[in-house]
Amino acid sequence: MSAHSLATEHTSPATTTARSARRITVHGTVQGVGFRPFVYRLATSLGLDGWVRNAGGHVVVEAAGAPTALDLLTQRLRTDAPPLAVVTRVNSIELSGPPVPGGSGFAVNESRPTGRTERDLPPDVATCADCLAELFDPADRRFRYPFINCTNCGPRATIIGGLPYDRERTTMATFRLCTDCAAEYTDPTNRRFHAEPVACPACGPRLSWRETEGLPGSSALTGEAALRHAAARIAAGEIVAVKGLGGYQLICDATRPDTVARLRTLKRRPAKPFAIMVPGLPATRRLAWPTHAEEHLLTSIARPIVLIRARRRGRPRLATGIHPSSNRVGIFLPYTPLHHLLLGELDRPLVVTSGNRAEEPIAIDDTAALRQLGDLVDGFLYHDRPILARYDDSVTRVVGRSESVVRRARGYAPAPLAVPVPASRPLLAVGAQLKHTFAIVSGDRAVLGPHGGDLEDADTMDAFTSTLDHLCGLLGTEPELVAHDLHPGYLSTQYATGHWPAGRRVAVQHHHAHVASCAAEHGVTGPVIGVAYDGLGLGDDGTLWGGEILLATLTGYRRLARFATAPLPGGAAAIRRPARMALGYLFGAEPLGSQPLPADLVRTFADRKDPGEVQAVRRMIERSVNSPRASSAGRLFDAVASLLGLRDTATYEGEAAVALEAMAGTDRPAELPWRLARWGEGWVYDVVPTLRAVLAGQVEGRPESELAAAFHQTIVAVTVALCEQAVRATGVRTVCLSGGCFQNQRLATEVPVALRSAGLRVLINRRVPVNDGGISYGQAAIAAARTAGA
Known about the structure:
Helix content is 32%, strand content 21%.
């Protein structure tokens, strides 16, 4: 059902009063957020005549009446906008023609598609309190209806097929409104007025259950029966695939170790933590120690997964396999009516994780879900509302009392972000390889695509390109330039070089993009001292970087300092095998003038490892065979984790570093020895004294927890020292922190405190991920700045 003209009579001021007419255009996130009903009610209350309609990605208002009332309308369109709206610009012009006759009323007119214009897409948002009250009210006609929603909540980005945002351009187009829903949809006093996903049990989507061996569309149970059956199967220890907002989810009982272990095996996810969903804040407090800021995030309309310090003896007891080797647990609250109903039936914490195997895209199509997930689960709880766009759950945390997004997806994307230097032409930034996102830039607005996982193979590339095509179509943007990483092996780089000629490509160094992502989101164009700590990125000299201090603007950078290099024996194999990385440092750390590591200390570690591997690694390093050197902070964390016996093998990126952080706890021992050496016109952190102290501490019997904490203190001290040297050399006193190592809560908290104590201004990523999920935004900001005016 499309939007239509709706007018109403009202009592207007005396027609003898001077009248004028204006056309007002409102830009921003103003479609799918109840903006037209808001305009209707506001204009009516002010005694104005005219109309409002969606047009492309904005809202157009033509209103006539007393000039003072029109002034108020223009002002309050910005100041009193609905909670979900984000108004970025309001333009108003006087109309020269005769004003609308007094007393003719105000109308919501049919939408009109337009040509290229700014288009902001609303993210999906959590079920509102009003809908929840109806969901559990036996007297309400939507009692226990899993798809209840209104203007203030429900699906948005995942169902939109085109703009203007009207039902006919969503996946709800095939669900014809019943008489009752149509009455609500056309009643300007109803909170479901022009709520495009509005539905009820009589006319809307329907739940179904099918066994794993069933065919698509086959079902023995529907509606309430399907829901209760799924809940019973989860309670019995089984794994159920549930069709959510942005894709299928795998759900099971988080208190059953056997079920969680089975899920890990089937999903090929041996150690990476699972997120759990609980009914509300009381349940959260029984499992973790949320701060006020974390509780605010948990209950926000985005309903992200929030990383919170876990209780050691939570109630009920979570399975040990939920968050192994991490002292933080990812918790989120239900954000769909279906989640609320399932938790109400089960009354226990649930594992709710993406519906895929490790490194595969999330299943969104019913037929594909059966093929991809059929051997992982014991049944499917699904529905007949199609999902147009793939959106995983967002992950966030609190750093220094402020939010810092870890994974930007449902609830956050595709809301736009500003870029400090507007792009002269539409551009695309294709991001990196891990934790992949892309960014589409038009003018001063960047729209980040949702988190897409790691670009590993054809399936994840197909998911990336289909999401990109969908979002470009919705935004009405055809990129004319592409920004990409320097690394030729990244699939994102290969996509850029394969689809754009050289003259339309902007190559961006990985760590410059990290620093720019932080600076740009804070509106800083530079110069800044950039601290970029991560695993690996290709430097402009062809070597691998990862522990970098840069002097940077959005158009360029200079390398001021770095961590010492060490070989990666076996290349990528060293990333998956921290023990190899440790041997790389012990046998091949960059000689910078320190006393070599004592042979007896090296033997204390090497003798505990497989002799064949030790011998092979030593030969590779001595002969410089498949052992590229890297100045990587992330790899140093891996090496120390292995030296302390915490992780010799990593099953996911950062696993060893996570274990090292958890082992460090909250103790504050003295830092370990460290040294800075001259490096050309800059400085380099000589890691050998630190590694010698770690090995000696083990021989002396110092606890692993004490050594892990001391290592963290050392990295803080080294960072401050490197930044102080950079400030002396440049006079720049603003520091931007970015890179995956700053996912480490301890570093992200203590490095800013120490730098501020040294009198420096410190910025860290907040709305954009500090990890490689923020690379595309940094690339976009750099490309826009470099090509400004071109």
